[in-house]
Amino acid sequence: MLNIVLFGPPGAGKGTQSQFLMDRFHLSHISTGDLFRKHLKEGTDLGKLAQKYMDEGNLVPDKVVIDMVDDKIQTDGNVAGYIFDGFPRTVEQAKALDHLLDERGTPIRGMIALVVPEEELINRLMERGKTSGRVDDQNKEKIAHRIEVYKKETLPVATYYKKQGKYNSIEGVGTIDEISQRIETVIASYKQ
Ligand code: AP5
Ligand code: MG
Description:
The chain is an alpha/beta fold and about 190 residues long. It contains eight helices and five strands, in the order βαβαααβαβααβα.
């Protein structure tokens, strides 16, 4: 199984590149942000709970996120592997994911981090905010806050995987295809 953590700040292109990974390697995509937005749309209790955190650009509590991912993995059938997008976002979540995957004997193969300058992130999200309907894309302050939360709470997750020798970073600026190629090169190196 090829389990990958696709990592990066808000707007780095995690969702965009997940599409490539799904097509190219037939991996199953778990985006906790997308799952919460789906709950929100369906008006579930989980969606309502998550909304107040998401609208402010804050993290949803670990237990809520971990239980949702656990549930998703347990109910999935056989898959070729997972792309985790926007998860794990805290060291607590990373530990829980390791535990969950250890039980199944299918550990994380590697983390691939997309590196994008802050100015570019803000530009991308401001642009998307014009049409996305995402409350958290709507102004510069909110976007800046999400980036701050990333630095404070999520960056330590990179260190967690570095310690396991599972960290790779790539330049996240360029055309979508160029970035996909860089990801593919990292994945090819896993197989050697
Ligand atoms: P989440 O949905 O994960 O959002 P995010 O991490 O803030 O990131 P985005 O989805 O905005 O960006 P992305 O990296 O996917 O980039 P994309 O491909 O879209 O989380 C939202 C909220 O949910 C969180 O704030 C939190 O409240 C909650 N949450 C989610 N997971 C959680 C967790 N694990 N724990 C706790 N809380 C959690 O691209 C961005 C834009 O750039 C697009 O418009 C795209 O078209 C464009 N773009 C992509 N690639 C390129 C390129 N190469 N060149 C130019 N433009 C590009
Ligand atoms: Mg995304």
